[in-house]
Amino acid sequence: MTLFILLACLGGALVGLSRQLNGRLSISTTPLIASFWNHAIGFAVLTCLGLFVGGLLPAGAAEAPWYAYLGGSIGVVFVAAGSWAIARIGAVNSALLIIGGQMVTGVALDYISAVPTSFWANATGIVLIVGGMMLSRRRRKGDGSQ
Prior knowledge:
mainly alpha
């Protein structure tokens, strides 16, 4: 279990590093160019890894429904938007926005999918996320750091 926790932490650190690099690259170029290089390098590394380890094209990939492949297009938009946001609102605020958006979207998808959930637990979680983001924003404005 410890190995998987360490791998998750490493993955999070690498995602943070990637967002920082994309944000910096988008400042000197454009968010679309930063997104292009992010995906080009990721494609090359993952293709080499897939060829080396195996399983580049898993069995049944051709039978997957068409919408299973929309993740790549959504990823391009997400990375470009993240590069644009980091350059304008900073890394911390964009990370808070991403985490808050993921949490609220997860709750919304649970309700749409009719997954049995606790309304009060979900509502409390959303209120705490939004409240924390507002409190963080207010403290920065009060400090005069923005």
